[in-house]
Amino acid sequence: MNNKIINWFKYASPQSFYPLAGKMIPWFWALAAIFGGIGLWITFFAAPTDFQQGEGYRIIFIHVPAAWMSMFIYIVMAGWAALGLALNTRLSGMMAQALAPTGAIMAFLSLWTGAFWGKPMWGAWWVWDARLTSALILFFLYIGFIALQAAIDDPRRADKAGAILALVGVVNVPIIYFSVKWWNTLHQGASVSLTKAPTMAATMLWGMLIMALAFWMYSIAVALTRVRAIILEREAHTEWVKELPEVKGTGQ
Amino acid sequence: MKPRHKRIALIGGGLAALGIAAALVLNALNSNIAFFVTPTEIAEGKAPQGKTFRVGGMVKEGSLRRDNLTVHFVITDTAKEVPVAYTGILPDLFMEGKGAVAQGRIGADGVFAASEVLAKHDENYMPPEAQHAVDQAQKTGQTLKQ
């Protein structure tokens, strides 16, 4: 093996990733606070009211970033799961496990805020259209992944079972995204996409994108914090964990 | 082949098979996944007979009429139209020229008797001034055409 490959794989070992994650976490928290502050200021003060929905539309500043994150985190989680299955790396399973609760929270948040918006705007808390149903399935996939992993005691086998579930469920993500295009749904089409100009006023769009950035930073910070806890738990028997200053002297 | 490559091939093959299966299932369910049918589909006889279903489209401009507690309006997809009668509270976003979805069944008189009406919002978000500007521009455009 040449040096490049060795360097690249260096941080795939829990022992070297643990301190790296610890160094990165405060930065992501700081960025989350900055973007969150600006985003919320735009949400409540800078963004104009909507011509039709009045003030009620402001829920999109939470709803849309949460929905984006719930789909994106799932793809990242499935990516780690595939990597773990293919290469048998220890960190992959831990990353997937660390991402799942945050993804589930995002999925729940998008469903919940969506219901809040739906009641006054559509006239219904919930309808069984393709977008809402597939988003609910995504939430159940997260819950199923968490439950399956927790149900199997041996972490290696738990990772494998979870990885297969995560990979099977990845089919659902494009279905969620394109559901509003493929079928007649009550849910409106995308206001923001890569292929066409956004159909939103500029201030609203900026507010939403900055909120999305804040959600990204928050998700990364939380997932890294969680993966550190998982590393400590799973590697508790190893020498390097016992030598850590935060573990040493706690009687472990 | 190394075991690692074998596993990668297996995962790739499995995902591809799953994707194809999902595409086939969704294709087969296509008509059932639709949340509503359009007036054109009703005219083509694609609406379920003798069952409740949802019809969706635009509320035709100038068609909204109130008769005591019952509201009458016409849902159009610009090609075909369906008259709708509904007794109940309409959602805030329900208005002429905007999207709506009604659930119910077609009566013998050809009027769709709705038991629930939902407003369908579009993907446009803008401040009232911008909407005013858009309206003005459209009016000017129409005058120029005439």
User: Counting H and I runs of at least 4 residues, what is the number of helices of chain B?
Assistant: 4
As an assembly, this protein is heterodimer
What's the name of the CATH homologous superfamily of the largest domain in chain B? Nucleic acid-binding proteins
Shape of chain B: extended
* Count of runs of 4 or more consecutive helical residues of chain A: 9
* Gap from first CA to last CA of chain A: 38 Å
CATH class of the largest domain in chain B: Mainly Beta
Class inferred from helices and paired strands of chain A: mainly alpha
Mean pLDDT of chain A: 88
Mean pLDDT of chain B: 81
> What's the count of strands of chain B?
6
How do the helices and strands follow one another from N- to C-terminus of chain A? Answer: HHHHHHHHH
Helical content of chain A stands at: over 70%
**Which spans of chain B have pLDDT < 50 for at least 5 consecutive residues?**
none
How far do the termini of chain B sit from each other?
A: 73 Å
Helix % of chain B is 25-40%
Give start-end ranges of low-pLDDT stretches of chain A: none
Strand segment count of chain A: 0
Question: Nearest-angstrom radius of gyration of chain B?
Answer: 23 Å
3D architecture notes:
The complex is a heterodimer of chains A (252) and B (146). Chain A is an all-alpha fold and 252 residues long. Chain A is built from nine helices and no strands. In chain A, 74% of the residues lie in helices and 0% in strands. The model of chain A has no long low-confidence stretch (mean pLDDT 88). Chain B has 146 residues and is an alpha+beta fold. Chain B folds into two domains: 1-33; 35-120, Nucleic acid-binding proteins (OB fold (Dihydrolipoamide Acetyltransferase, E2P), Beta Barrel), CATH 2.40.50. In chain B, 36% of the residues lie in helices and 28% in strands. Chain B contains four helices and six strands, in the order αααββββββα. Chain B has helices at residues 3-28, 30-33, 39-43, 128-145, and strands at 53-59, 65-67, 70-76, 81-87, 99-106, 112-120. In chain B, a hairpin with a 5-residue loop joins strand 5 (99-106) and strand 6. The interface between A and B is large, with 40 and 43 residues.
